[in-house]
Amino acid sequence: VFVLTGTLTGLTREAARREIEALGGKVTGSISKKTDCLIAGAKAGSKLVKAEQLGLEVLDEAGFVTRLAENKAVTDG
Predict the structure, then answer these.
(1) Are 16 and 7 in contact (CB under 8 A)?
(2) Assigned CATH topology for domain 2-76
């Protein structure tokens, strides 16, 4: 389960959602104990604080794009 927060510069939030869902992930709007990873763009705010408090994985936009490429290579390859 992924949560998107902050401003993404390289892709729209909807495009990010589609990419996650295409790889079998789920996107929700809020952080919870079920959240696996927060994708944090610029000015992430309170969701970032909560994710850190819960010890969740946090990826910045560059890390997210890298992870997408890695997962696409695995599923395509």
Answers:
(1) no
(2) Rossmann fold (3.40.50)
